[in-house]
UniProtKB/TrEMBL annotation, chains A, B:
The active site is at residue 54. It is an enzyme of class 3 (hydrolase). Binds 1 zinc ion per subunit. It catalyses: adenosine(34) in tRNA + H2O + H(+) = inosine(34) in tRNA + NH4(+). It comes from Paralimibaculum aggregatum. HAMAP family: tRNA_aden_deaminase. This is tRNA-specific adenosine deaminase. The gene is tadA. PROSITE patterns: CYT_DCMP_DEAMINASES_1, CYT_DCMP_DEAMINASES_2. Residues 1-110 form the CMP/dCMP-type deaminase domain. InterPro entries: APOBEC/CMP_deaminase_Zn-bd (IPR016192), CMP_dCMP_dom (IPR002125), Cytidine_deaminase-like (IPR016193), tRNA_aden_deaminase (IPR028883). Homodimer.
Amino acid sequence: MRFASHMPRALAEARAAAARGETPVGAVISRGTEILAADGNRVRELSDPTAHAEILVLRAAARRLGTERLAGCDLTVTLEPCPMCAGAISLARVARLYYGAADPKSGGVEHGPRVFARSTCHHAPEIYGGIAEAAAAALLRAFFAARR
Amino acid sequence: MRFASHMPRALAEARAAAARGETPVGAVISRGTEILAADGNRVRELSDPTAHAEILVLRAAARRLGTERLAGCDLTVTLEPCPMCAGAISLARVARLYYGAADPKSGGVEHGPRVFARSTCHHAPEIYGGIAEAAAAALLRAFFAARR
Protein backbone atom coordinates (compact mmCIF):
# COMPACT_ATOMS: atom_id res chain seq x y z
CA MET A 1 0.00 0.00 0.00
CA ARG A 2 1.53 3.29 -1.10
CA PHE A 3 -0.51 5.64 1.06
CA ALA A 4 -1.06 5.22 4.79
CA SER A 5 -3.37 7.89 6.19
CA HIS A 6 -2.24 9.68 9.33
CA MET A 7 -5.83 10.68 10.10
CA PRO A 8 -6.25 8.07 12.89
CA ARG A 9 -3.33 9.67 14.75
CA ALA A 10 -4.69 13.17 14.09
CA LEU A 11 -8.06 12.08 15.51
CA ALA A 12 -6.32 10.69 18.60
CA GLU A 13 -4.63 14.09 19.08
CA ALA A 14 -8.03 15.79 18.70
CA ARG A 15 -9.53 13.54 21.40
CA ALA A 16 -6.57 14.33 23.68
CA ALA A 17 -7.16 18.05 23.10
CA ALA A 18 -10.84 17.67 24.08
CA ALA A 19 -9.75 15.88 27.27
CA ARG A 20 -7.61 18.96 28.09
CA GLY A 21 -10.62 21.26 27.59
CA GLU A 22 -9.35 22.55 24.24
CA THR A 23 -11.24 22.69 20.95
CA PRO A 24 -10.80 19.13 19.63
CA VAL A 25 -8.57 19.51 16.59
CA GLY A 26 -5.49 17.37 15.99
CA ALA A 27 -2.75 17.47 13.37
CA VAL A 28 0.19 15.44 12.09
CA ILE A 29 3.17 16.41 9.90
CA SER A 30 4.57 13.44 8.03
CA ARG A 31 7.08 12.51 5.38
CA GLY A 32 5.69 9.33 3.84
CA THR A 33 4.93 6.95 6.68
CA GLU A 34 7.22 8.80 9.13
CA ILE A 35 5.50 11.14 11.60
CA LEU A 36 7.64 14.24 12.25
CA ALA A 37 5.26 15.91 14.69
CA ALA A 38 1.78 15.33 16.09
CA ASP A 39 -0.20 17.56 18.44
CA GLY A 40 -3.59 18.99 19.28
CA ASN A 41 -4.93 22.46 20.01
CA ARG A 42 -3.30 24.13 23.06
CA VAL A 43 -4.65 27.70 22.86
CA ARG A 44 -5.92 27.81 26.44
CA GLU A 45 -3.13 25.79 28.04
CA LEU A 46 -0.42 28.01 26.51
CA SER A 47 -2.40 31.30 26.55
CA ASP A 48 -1.45 31.48 22.88
CA PRO A 49 -3.99 32.54 20.24
CA THR A 50 -1.78 30.95 17.56
CA ALA A 51 -1.50 27.52 19.26
CA HIS A 52 -3.77 25.72 16.81
CA ALA A 53 -2.81 22.09 16.16
CA GLU A 54 -1.50 22.93 12.68
CA ILE A 55 0.78 25.75 13.88
CA LEU A 56 2.19 23.61 16.69
CA VAL A 57 3.12 20.73 14.36
CA LEU A 58 4.50 23.05 11.65
CA ARG A 59 6.76 24.67 14.22
CA ALA A 60 7.82 21.37 15.77
CA ALA A 61 8.61 19.73 12.43
CA ALA A 62 10.55 22.77 11.16
CA ARG A 63 12.56 22.88 14.39
CA ARG A 64 13.26 19.16 14.08
CA LEU A 65 14.41 19.46 10.45
CA GLY A 66 16.33 22.68 11.12
CA THR A 67 14.64 24.54 8.27
CA GLU A 68 11.61 26.79 7.88
CA ARG A 69 10.61 24.99 4.65
CA LEU A 70 8.82 21.66 4.92
CA ALA A 71 9.11 20.70 1.24
CA GLY A 72 8.04 17.10 0.69
CA CYS A 73 6.12 17.00 3.98
CA ASP A 74 2.39 16.50 4.35
CA LEU A 75 -0.04 17.89 6.91
CA THR A 76 -3.06 15.89 8.10
CA VAL A 77 -5.60 17.72 10.27
CA THR A 78 -9.06 16.80 11.52
CA LEU A 79 -10.70 20.13 10.55
CA GLU A 80 -10.46 22.51 7.59
CA PRO A 81 -7.64 24.94 8.51
CA CYS A 82 -8.52 28.53 9.43
CA PRO A 83 -7.01 31.47 7.48
CA MET A 84 -4.05 31.75 9.89
CA CYS A 85 -3.20 28.07 9.52
CA ALA A 86 -3.75 28.06 5.75
CA GLY A 87 -1.31 30.98 5.51
CA ALA A 88 1.25 29.11 7.63
CA ILE A 89 0.85 25.96 5.50
CA SER A 90 1.62 28.03 2.41
CA LEU A 91 4.64 29.73 4.00
CA ALA A 92 6.01 26.34 5.11
CA ARG A 93 5.68 24.93 1.57
CA VAL A 94 3.73 21.86 2.77
CA ALA A 95 3.34 19.43 -0.16
CA ARG A 96 -0.07 17.91 0.60
CA LEU A 97 -2.91 18.90 2.93
CA TYR A 98 -5.34 16.22 4.10
CA TYR A 99 -8.24 17.38 6.23
CA GLY A 100 -11.37 15.95 7.81
CA ALA A 101 -14.48 18.04 8.40
CA ALA A 102 -15.13 21.21 6.43
CA ASP A 103 -15.56 24.36 8.58
CA PRO A 104 -18.07 26.75 6.99
CA LYS A 105 -17.89 29.09 10.01
CA SER A 106 -14.13 29.55 10.39
CA GLY A 107 -12.39 27.67 7.58
CA GLY A 108 -9.97 29.41 5.24
CA VAL A 109 -9.48 26.77 2.53
CA GLU A 110 -12.86 26.11 0.90
CA HIS A 111 -14.62 28.85 2.90
CA GLY A 112 -14.03 32.49 3.87
CA PRO A 113 -10.86 33.96 2.35
CA ARG A 114 -9.97 30.71 0.47
CA VAL A 115 -6.30 31.48 1.01
CA PHE A 116 -4.85 28.95 -1.45
CA ALA A 117 -7.14 30.05 -4.29
CA ARG A 118 -5.76 33.60 -4.50
CA SER A 119 -3.44 34.68 -7.30
CA THR A 120 -1.11 36.13 -4.64
CA CYS A 121 -0.69 32.73 -2.92
CA HIS A 122 2.96 31.80 -3.54
CA HIS A 123 2.55 28.10 -2.71
CA ALA A 124 -0.55 25.94 -2.46
CA PRO A 125 -0.39 22.31 -1.34
CA GLU A 126 -2.30 19.53 -3.07
CA ILE A 127 -5.57 19.50 -1.11
CA TYR A 128 -7.65 16.48 -0.08
CA GLY A 129 -10.68 17.27 2.11
CA GLY A 130 -13.42 15.18 3.67
CA ILE A 131 -11.14 12.42 5.03
CA ALA A 132 -12.84 10.65 7.97
CA GLU A 133 -14.96 13.75 8.23
CA ALA A 134 -17.79 12.06 10.13
CA ALA A 135 -15.44 11.16 12.98
CA ALA A 136 -13.86 14.63 13.10
CA ALA A 137 -17.22 16.40 12.97
CA ALA A 138 -18.71 14.15 15.68
CA LEU A 139 -15.83 15.06 18.02
CA LEU A 140 -16.46 18.77 17.53
CA ARG A 141 -20.24 18.44 17.92
CA ALA A 142 -19.88 16.49 21.16
CA PHE A 143 -17.41 19.03 22.51
CA PHE A 144 -19.53 22.09 21.80
CA ALA A 145 -22.76 20.36 22.94
CA ALA A 146 -21.13 19.60 26.30
CA ARG A 147 -20.16 23.28 26.74
CA ARG A 148 -23.62 24.67 26.12
CA MET B 1 -1.52 64.18 22.93
CA ARG B 2 -3.88 61.22 22.98
CA PHE B 3 -2.13 59.01 20.47
CA ALA B 4 1.57 58.16 20.51
CA SER B 5 2.56 56.05 17.52
CA HIS B 6 4.63 52.95 18.22
CA MET B 7 5.85 52.92 14.60
CA PRO B 8 9.34 54.28 15.47
CA ARG B 9 9.89 51.27 17.75
CA ALA B 10 8.48 48.89 15.11
CA LEU B 11 10.90 50.38 12.55
CA ALA B 12 13.80 49.88 14.98
CA GLU B 13 12.80 46.21 15.33
CA ALA B 14 12.68 45.93 11.52
CA ARG B 15 16.21 47.36 11.24
CA ALA B 16 17.41 44.90 13.89
CA ALA B 17 15.84 42.04 11.90
CA ALA B 18 17.69 43.16 8.76
CA ALA B 19 20.94 43.19 10.73
CA ARG B 20 20.25 39.54 11.64
CA GLY B 21 19.73 38.65 7.96
CA GLU B 22 15.96 38.38 8.33
CA THR B 23 13.31 40.08 6.21
CA PRO B 24 13.12 43.55 7.80
CA VAL B 25 9.69 43.64 9.41
CA GLY B 26 9.10 44.77 13.00
CA ALA B 27 6.04 44.80 15.23
CA VAL B 28 4.84 46.14 18.58
CA ILE B 29 1.85 45.17 20.75
CA SER B 30 0.74 48.01 22.96
CA ARG B 31 -1.98 49.05 25.37
CA GLY B 32 -2.10 52.83 25.11
CA THR B 33 1.44 54.09 25.60
CA GLU B 34 2.60 50.83 27.26
CA ILE B 35 4.53 48.40 25.04
CA LEU B 36 3.68 44.79 25.93
CA ALA B 37 5.95 43.15 23.35
CA ALA B 38 8.21 44.24 20.48
CA ASP B 39 10.12 42.03 18.06
CA GLY B 40 11.20 41.52 14.47
CA ASN B 41 11.11 38.65 12.01
CA ARG B 42 13.02 35.55 13.21
CA VAL B 43 12.02 32.92 10.61
CA ARG B 44 15.58 31.89 9.76
CA GLU B 45 17.06 32.18 13.24
CA LEU B 46 14.36 29.97 14.75
CA SER B 47 13.81 27.71 11.70
CA ASP B 48 10.15 28.60 12.18
CA PRO B 49 7.95 29.45 9.17
CA THR B 50 5.48 31.15 11.54
CA ALA B 51 8.06 33.43 13.23
CA HIS B 52 6.87 36.64 11.56
CA ALA B 53 7.19 39.75 13.73
CA GLU B 54 3.41 39.89 14.28
CA ILE B 55 3.13 36.28 15.45
CA LEU B 56 6.08 36.66 17.84
CA VAL B 57 4.62 39.74 19.53
CA LEU B 58 1.08 38.31 19.67
CA ARG B 59 2.44 35.21 21.40
CA ALA B 60 4.67 37.19 23.76
CA ALA B 61 1.92 39.62 24.77
CA ALA B 62 -0.64 36.82 25.31
CA ARG B 63 1.85 34.90 27.45
CA ARG B 64 2.58 38.04 29.45
CA LEU B 65 -1.12 38.78 30.04
CA GLY B 66 -1.96 35.11 30.67
CA THR B 67 -4.79 35.07 28.14
CA GLU B 68 -5.18 34.22 24.47
CA ARG B 69 -7.37 37.29 23.90
CA LEU B 70 -5.67 40.67 23.52
CA ALA B 71 -8.82 42.78 23.78
CA GLY B 72 -7.98 46.48 24.09
CA CYS B 73 -4.48 45.93 22.68
CA ASP B 74 -3.14 47.40 19.46
CA LEU B 75 -0.65 46.00 16.94
CA THR B 76 1.76 48.24 15.03
CA VAL B 77 3.75 46.62 12.20
CA THR B 78 5.96 48.05 9.49
CA LEU B 79 4.39 46.01 6.63
CA GLU B 80 0.86 44.96 5.67
CA PRO B 81 0.32 41.62 7.47
CA CYS B 82 0.24 38.40 5.40
CA PRO B 83 -2.82 36.09 5.52
CA MET B 84 -1.34 34.03 8.38
CA CYS B 85 -0.72 37.12 10.50
CA ALA B 86 -4.08 38.68 9.62
CA GLY B 87 -5.76 35.47 10.76
CA ALA B 88 -3.80 35.52 14.03
CA ILE B 89 -4.68 39.19 14.63
CA SER B 90 -8.36 38.29 14.25
CA LEU B 91 -8.11 35.26 16.57
CA ALA B 92 -6.32 37.39 19.20
CA ARG B 93 -9.07 40.04 19.06
CA VAL B 94 -6.58 42.89 18.54
CA ALA B 95 -8.42 46.23 18.79
CA ARG B 96 -6.46 48.35 16.28
CA LEU B 97 -4.01 47.50 13.53
CA TYR B 98 -1.54 50.17 12.40
CA TYR B 99 0.72 49.26 9.50
CA GLY B 100 3.32 50.91 7.30
CA ALA B 101 3.92 49.83 3.71
CA ALA B 102 1.25 47.97 1.74
CA ASP B 103 2.35 44.57 0.40
CA PRO B 104 0.71 43.85 -2.98
CA LYS B 105 2.70 40.62 -3.38
CA SER B 106 2.07 38.91 -0.05
CA GLY B 107 -0.32 41.06 1.98
CA GLY B 108 -3.57 39.65 3.33
CA VAL B 109 -5.36 42.81 4.50
CA GLU B 110 -5.89 45.05 1.47
CA HIS B 111 -4.51 42.45 -0.98
CA GLY B 112 -4.90 38.74 -1.69
CA PRO B 113 -7.46 37.02 0.53
CA ARG B 114 -8.36 40.26 2.38
CA VAL B 115 -8.94 38.26 5.54
CA PHE B 116 -10.76 40.93 7.57
CA ALA B 117 -13.21 41.75 4.77
CA ARG B 118 -14.83 38.29 4.70
CA SER B 119 -18.28 37.67 6.16
CA THR B 120 -16.79 34.67 8.03
CA CYS B 121 -14.24 36.88 9.84
CA HIS B 122 -15.34 36.80 13.49
CA HIS B 123 -13.31 39.83 14.57
CA ALA B 124 -11.71 42.59 12.55
CA PRO B 125 -9.58 45.31 14.17
CA GLU B 126 -9.87 48.98 13.26
CA ILE B 127 -7.31 49.31 10.45
CA TYR B 128 -4.95 52.22 9.76
CA GLY B 129 -2.51 51.64 6.87
CA GLY B 130 0.20 53.76 5.29
CA ILE B 131 1.81 54.94 8.54
CA ALA B 132 5.46 55.93 7.94
CA GLU B 133 5.20 53.78 4.85
CA ALA B 134 8.12 55.44 3.05
CA ALA B 135 10.52 54.42 5.85
CA ALA B 136 9.17 50.85 6.01
CA ALA B 137 9.25 50.40 2.24
CA ALA B 138 12.79 51.82 1.99
CA LEU B 139 14.03 49.27 4.52
CA LEU B 140 12.55 46.40 2.51
CA ARG B 141 13.86 47.72 -0.80
CA ALA B 142 17.40 48.11 0.56
CA PHE B 143 17.29 44.61 2.02
CA PHE B 144 16.16 42.87 -1.15
CA ALA B 145 18.46 44.97 -3.36
CA ALA B 146 21.44 43.87 -1.24
CA ARG B 147 20.49 40.20 -1.66
CA ARG B 148 20.21 40.27 -5.44
